[in-house]
Amino acid sequence: MKKYELIAGIDVSKLKLDVNFLLTNDPAHTNHFIVKNNKKGLQELLNRLNKLKIDLKQVLFSYEDTGVYSMPLCYFLTKQGLDYWMIPAIEIESVGVRRIKATQKTLLFMH
Fold it and tell me: How is domain 6-109 classified at the architecture level of CATH?
């Protein structure tokens, strides 16, 4: 299995991408921000990664398949040749009124 330097967990909605970067060698260091779910926002996402001076081939983008809302992100990452994990909505668990995404559980076990 490939080891990534950074995990980008993304919550996708119609208008925005709620992004959280997690460095795998320093899980206490995270970077949270929100960009628009459009071409300009997707470019801003890559610009923020470039500022961290991390090789984009060492980043795993992880997000829930939200149908039509996640397609621009899927297309953009594919076009850039970047690795991503689009998680089927069926894998999302509900705990009371809180939702825990499979990506969050995976990140806990990567350390």
Answer: 2-Layer Sandwich (3.30)
pTM for this entry: 0.78
pLDDT digits (tens, 9 = 90+) for 58-92: 999 999 888 899 999 999 999 999 999 998 877 65
DSSP the chain: -PPPSEEEEEEE-SSEEEEEEEETTEEEEEEEEEEESSHHHHHHHHHHHHHTT--GGGEEEEEE--GGGTHHHHHHHHHHT-EEEEE-GGG-EEETTEEE-HHHHHHHHT-
